[in-house]
Amino acid sequence: MDAISVIRTKRDRGELSDEQIDWVIDAYTRGEVADEQMSALAMAILLNGMNRREIARWTAAMIASGERMDFSSLSRPTADKHSTGGVGDKITLPLAPLVAACGAAVPQLSGRGLGHTGGTLDKLESIPGWRALLSNEEMLSVLDGTGAVICAAGDGLAPADKKLYALRDVTGTVEAIPLIASSIMSKKIAEGTGSLVLDVKVGTGAFMKTLEDARELASTMVGLGTDHGVKTVALLTDMSIPLGLTAGNALEVRESVEVLAGGGPADVVELTIALAREMLDAAGVKDADPAKALADGSAMDVWRRMITAQGGDPDAELPVAREQHVIKAPASGVLTRLDAYDIGVAAWRLGAGRARKEDPVQAGAGIEMHAKPGDTVREGQPLLTLHTDTPERFAYALEAVAGSYDIAAPGTDFKASPVVLE
Ligand code: URA
């Protein structure tokens, strides 16, 4: 077998055989297939697609490239959630302790932000002392002791995906449904969760811009999970406007703690509870009431214990950016659009995200939104506050938000899109 013949098969719109797939994933993981060969193959897959059999085999080969975790020693059923990525998407932070407070165990392997989308680990690292990197033993011990753990995937889990994802990121080959589905599901299946809820984002701020593409991605991932014995369900949720009123690391932790304290923005609370219900249902936990666990403080108790178990101080002051710039409403009226992609790009340019994997992020950088679509605004009132430690970034962020919102005449009828679409 050789890489060139595998590339030619897909370049010429052929089907990759099981043997070709097993060989190329294994040889790439071992360094025998070069990055430039794998990037040519990834581009051929992006352009010509893969059928269900090829996607299933590709996923199985990526799982087989590393170790599989086992949570069978836990006394509770396991449930995990994965979001395909968005702007202001801090849902994992309140969701993991909430579902644990309701009786399931939540092993939440999370990622870092890249480009305009935020990453759960970057957000949590704004809590002084908190550690994302845990050994498998530490992960199991936090999970067993508190009911929830949020941490980085260890090096041993789906190493083929680790290499391939980094390569796709710099070769314009991220947005391919077969590659996204196999990337996400190989990690989730290797992680060993019993059930999985997928939050597939749709809209300007998401990888999937249309409902049709999001449906295809969701059904591909549900099929992969089900075939591997993981109870998998998917919700399609709106990412045309940012979630909540903040985008940025420490800003989003603060908002998540408000939700755990029984407050917080309505859209964040609604999606957190909707996903919690799906996770508990998939895990077979009956008679739990996530809304009650948020209101009575039991989810907050799990949050505090989980943060402490990972070295963080839940009472510590969160970092605040050194400089702020307020954007005021240019007219009175009804806010009818606030674009998730533009807000995500602006937060990223302010320092909340990174351009390259190894770049540091600023804990305090990001954007506060003072109004959401449907709200009435007065001319001159604050609309957005930009936060950064490096004020020379304001100009780039202002460029990104310049066309990000529309204000219609006072009294205009406006119906916001639902948070959960399907
Ligand atoms: N998240 C992943 O883990 N992989 C992808 O390909 C896209 C989003």
Question: What would you note in describing this structure?
Answer:
It comes from Streptomyces caelestis. Residues 334-408 form the Pyrimidine nucleoside phosphorylase C-terminal domain. It catalyses: thymidine + phosphate = 2-deoxy-alpha-D-ribose 1-phosphate + thymine. Keywords: Glycosyltransferase, Transferase. Its EC number is 2.4.2.4. It is a single chain. The protein has 16 helices and twelve strands. By secondary structure, the protein is an alpha/beta fold. The mean pLDDT is 96. Strands 6-9-11-7 form a four-stranded antiparallel sheet. Strands 1-4-5 form a three-stranded parallel sheet, sandwiched between helices. The chain has helices at residues 3-11, 18-29, 35-48, 52-64, 92-101, 120-124, 136-146, 159-169, 177-191, 211-227, 249-260, 266-283, 290-295, 298-309, 340-352, 394-401; strands at residues 79-83, 106-110, 148-152, 195-202, 231-238, 246-248, 323-328, 333-338, 366-369, 376-377, 382-388, 405-408. The relative contact order is 0.14. The chain has three domains: 3-49, Up-down Bundle (Transferase, Pyrimidine Nucleoside Phosphorylase, Chain A, domain 3), CATH 1.20.970; 79-309, 3-Layer(aba) Sandwich (Pyrimidine Nucleoside Phosphorylase, Chain A, domain 2), CATH 3.40.1030; 323-408, Aldehyde Oxidoreductase, domain 3, CATH 3.90.1170.30. Helix 1 (3-11) runs parallel beside helix 3 (35-48) and helix 4 crosses helix 9. Bound molecules: uracil. Residues 84-85, 165, 174, 179-180, 183-184 line the site of uracil.
